[in-house]
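Next up, a chain.

===
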Amino acid sequence: MISTKGLTSDLADIPREWVFEYYLKLTERLSGQSLKIKSVFNVKDKVPSMCIYIDSKGNYKFKDFSSGYGGDRLNLVMYLYNLNSRGEASKKILDDYNVYISNNTYVSIEYKPHSKYVVSDYEMRHWNTLDQTYWKTFKLSSSILEKHNVYPLSFYTMIKEDDEGNLLDLINIKGNFIYGYFREDGTLYKIYTPKNKDNKFIKVRDYIQGSDQLEFKSKYLIITSSLKDLMCFKRLGISGIETIAPDSENSVIPENFMRPLLDKYQKIIVLFDNDEPGLRSAEKYNKKYGFNYINLDMSKDLSDSVKDYGIEAVRNKLFPLLKQAL
């Protein structure tokens, strides 16, 4: 006979961490830490790109940068099983949990978010020939990089502290190909390490890239997927268009930032990566704001297209697409 002890009809009784542990087949219990695993939505994912983390309210959520999916436990089950509603996901979780708990014991772990590493220090340096070689492949010079407040770093330091501010760990990272992304006021908002395949970007704080450079003198605005794409677009020499980029292609620029821009530009369009996550992210902007989007069918993104085909070829391909979208 199957014991009914612990069976429930209320989703609130099911530990939130159980949903992630069970459906993602995690090999360790969630106890407040963040995890990074290979995407369950993209079998071609070679480098872990799916993050399981705790939000500001202490609830586990996920973000899959490979597919663009993200959200809470109900979103996870909806996407995994192609369900149409949160209600269907809730029913499946209840059914699966009751089957599980009939044959297993599950004890919840009281947890709080674990301490995270944060950037505490850095040092700028002069440009060198290695920097020139790297950025030159995208037709970007030190002058345009500095115009957008991109500077090479000799090192940066990350620390982890406990709740009382006591130092738990310190890591000092130094070497070539480390770049700091800064705001006009000198505030560091991101670190870019293009040769680090596992973690190219370290976010320091929120910032809509390119917003400090907006002059609101053009008729049109383009949202690109990254600062590098933004700078490459400016190298195309297409006049009458300003550019911004979200913190990440997978995050939608919030309404409190976008709404004032609708009054300043005749048209806003999106130019993201030429892959499934990029197109899916562009569709989110179309659904939320009604923005048209362009698919530049060359390389993966605009900067790679410039690298692979050159400025003139990209301009000739992109210009008719822009005219059609505008």
Notes: The chain has three domains: 11-103, 115-206, 208-326.
